[in-house]
Design brief:
8-stranded mixed sheet; alpha/beta; binds magnesium ion; Rossmann fold; 2 domains; binds adenosine-5'-triphosphate
Amino acid sequence: MTPRSTPRAGYVEEPPVRSTIALALPQPEREGLPEVFAEAGFGTIEGDGPADLAAILSLGAHVSLAIVDAGDEPATAIELVQEARAGLGRAVPVLYVVGHDALDALTAGLDGTDEILTRPVTPDALRWRLEAMSIRAQVGDGAVGETVFASGNVQAEWLAASPVISVFNPKGGVGKTTIATSLAAVLQLRRERDVLLIDGDTVTGHVALSLGLPLGTALADQFADEDAGEPHRSLIELATTHSSGIRVAALTNSPLSLGHLAPERVSEAIMEARHSVGTVIVDLHPSYSEVNLAVFAISDRIIVPVTPDLPAIRAAVQLKEIAMELGMLDRLGLVVNRANSGVSVADIEVTTGMKALGEIRSAGMAFVWSANVGRTVIEKFPKHKVVEDLERLADRLLASPGPARAAAHERDVRSMLRSLLGRRLPAQA
Ligand SMILES: Nc1ncnc2c1ncn2[C@@H]1O[C@H](COP(=O)(O)OP(=O)(O)OP(=O)(O)O)[C@@H](O)[C@H]1O
Ligand SMILES: [Mg+2]
């Protein structure tokens, strides 16, 4: 056993350790992991397996998470973990690393807060799971989802803590992309949420470009690769990371590949990703496409930006009627964009019958100038008043992530999708 995070008084050159991870995995699997965790700010205390866990926990007062080899007989590992926890007197969430052969035995014996990562594990996958687990441990809403993904290397009982927020108005040019990107940046930079920003505008999407990022592999191309026998990669693996820390992935890079985007597969990919980050934000194309409906079905919140002009307000009223018919009215959150111009916020609220969740002022050229240098407005103009508006919106969203947070939410997605896709909706507002 090798303690790696010995605290030293007055040691200031390195950033403080966020928390310490108990790493109970055999060699060579744990080789290099402490270094990757250190980059992310975590300390590590190592051991060879679950039998070392009690000793590790007694060494590290600040151990917040444990990564434990489930071995060939998960029941033994689970028992050793329970003993170690009992000795400690507080709950430490455990991420079990398991081979496919022992997966069933492990899932049968797990308790609610523990998670599973199937072998082979990569340092990066492990690191991001740690990030997600530590966010969930802080958020601690206790909601447990029950999704088990058939593909991908993460399968588990999950803490379904990460909201999916989509941004939609069937009217073009109302600020969907601007708000999606800026909100992602506020959550990432000012609220310590790990954000995955998905460019879901399958026709004119340009989120990556406006952030100065290269176009990574889009989900549609990944689906085509998988159909040709290539291994599964999640949206997290497809994403490129912006200087702000936001991870950005796109559904398509070209409308020509739209045919590969089966709606149900898209919603599954987003549900898979939501367990690896703190928040998922999806910027949508202004149409009632099947892909959009699939995204609505798994969204905790649908933010509806409305500019203070009649066409945008009319489109919002129409969306509200459709949402009511689909039984998802309570997910809509009106956000008045360019709020300090045109029709007043009060009048927009009366006309749409929705109370504004947020107001974003007109920021002149600040958004354009930021995009010109591949930055978000939060980085380029950190003191701009519009950033305060965005922070207020972020806080309201965090305080009430939406009504659809029940565990049943994910289980019901398939039937909901079927009913959604069976409806006749306007092609374009
Ligand atoms: N609050 C604001 N202040 C100043 N400019 C803004 C504001 N919101 C949006 N804009 C500008 O308005 C234009 C349209 O915004 P954006 O592209 O975000 O709209 P959209 O709804 O995503 O459009 P589309 O439907 O075409 O996807 C952009 O040039 C953006 O910079
Ligand atoms: Mg847009």
